[in-house]
Amino acid sequence: MADAATYAQPILSPRAVGLGVYGASVKxxxxxxxxxxxxxxxxxxxxYATTYLPASSxxxxxxxxxxxxxGKRFFEDHxxxxxxxxGALLEFVLPSTMTVQGVGIAAERTVTYAEPxxxxxxxxxxxxxxxxxxxxxxxxxxxxxRYQFVDSTIVSFAxxxxxxxxxxxxxxxxxPSTGLTLSAVGRNLxxxxxxxxxxxxxxxxxxxxxxxxxxAAYDFSPAFRLTAGAGSNKYGGIGGEWSPGLGLAFRGxxxxxxxxxxxxxxxxxxxxxxxxxxxxxxGFLHFTDQEGRKGSTSxxxxxxxxxxxxxxxxxxxxxxxxSAKVVLGKVRESxxxxxxxxxxxxxxxxxxxxxxYRPIGKVRVQNVSDKPMQVRASFYIxxxxxxxxxxxxxxxxxxxxxxxxxxxxxxxxxxxxxTVTVREGNVYVSATPAEEYDDRLQAKVLIxxxxxxxxxxxxxRYFVTPDDPEVIRYSRDILLARKxxxxxxxxxxxLFRKAALMFDAFAGKLLYVNDPKQSADFVQYPAxxxxxxxGDCDDMTVCFSSLLNSVGIGTAFxxxxxxxxxxxxHIFLLFDTGLAPRHASHIAENPKRYVVRxxxxxxxxxxxxxxxxVITRGFAAAWAEGARQYFENVExxxxxxxxxxxxxxxx
Length: 651
Known about the structure:
Helix content is 13%, strand content 45%. It has nine helices and 34 strands.
């Protein structure tokens, strides 16, 4: 019985050969036909080429060019790839003898199956879910020579028939949890045929059955990955990959089938080395049963229905594979990934300086590398910030997650925001030794109007503007008009007298208005209060504090929030006389009229409480009411001790 020579030329990459089941591990353009949705794992431009050495007598005796491909990731979530694979070829030579007018002639019929071209597109819906589609071109060519006598000479004539088909596959990849990736690929879901083999050769056409392939990959640790999968065509396998470091990787896989004998019908091993943008891989594929895999087989055993895959079938021979991949553009892998962003604080323009020290939010970051990383986060809002504000470095263990606080250094433009608005805040993360961003995400940031106040007494101090030219001019005019009355005052009473004179002048020109409920979180800047000549409790307190600070007199806010009675919450002012406690009697004989506390230099001095709600009645009335408020709430009610009274210094 004559033999049929077989040449199976798979385009499987060494990495795919070593893993055994590749669908859930596709991350670039290499063998993307295993699962096109994995293309979104590319970094930027991706190029590869493969070759192999067949281990059979029917081979060419040297390395055979397998093919090359290229891929590109764009707009972060999209990817395209294409490959040209002349090595994806399966050729059968069917020897026979024919008789022409009594003369026996050797006639070799050649049957060739190939998949020379494939292209794919992938889209990432999220960090954990992506889909992909691909088209594969399959060609079937039969060369059946014809013979006839021409002038008493036997002449052969070429007789070639061919058909081609585009097959459409669809795939998805899903990462339900960290370290676990699941994939599914539907094969031959649709097809477009061109040409048709003659009726006498229809039995040589390859099957076009639809099939489903599912796979899983689990990272037990940054160094070890386990893969497994199976298909509706009753083929599957398991494999593993070990990455000890230094860019090295070692893989081993077993190929299983319920229709092969033995069930473990092939074993693959491979090794890879990554150095910068280049990755080099080598692998070896061995079949446990060599029957029919030596380059020739019995014609009677030739079974077209057994060829479901041109690259892996009953006629594929053992082989050594080599491949090289180069990444261009973004030539390093991301080392950190943003898991989520939480903005915990709105922006109040009055207190925007505080956000440089107090977090505006936090970003949860995962170290996706296999070694500890120093990760930094940056935050930026266009036009309101001159540059991204970077956080201190946080060390994150391999595959671990950590929260990094976000701070923001705003420019003066934030004070021009007049009403509440929402702006896009950009969050970036980078990992050492990276110099570019590993990931980026936008988060909604609420920006309040410049006069909005969050109700916290600590934030109220940011409305105090002693350096405002309007405030300085106002306070200087008051003291200049009354300089004669200050000449004869003792030096130790100068600050007290200046404050009293400024308060009386201040009270005589401004109108106090009750704080309407709808404006409880609205505070005027001192220049606005002086311009409109009026304001509520908060406005007056802030304005008088600014005037005193502009002439070197320290102040503090007293915030009262009685327990169970938030509606009675109130703020009034303390100012520093600079007088030592032993001289307090120079101001008042009654110790209930003043407060002894430390100033910004750390020395105890005499402070005077003043109540802004009675500002129109003059300094004496405001002092008396302020002293009463302080004594009842702090001394008698123990508000400071119990925490419902707070004193905030304004320097």
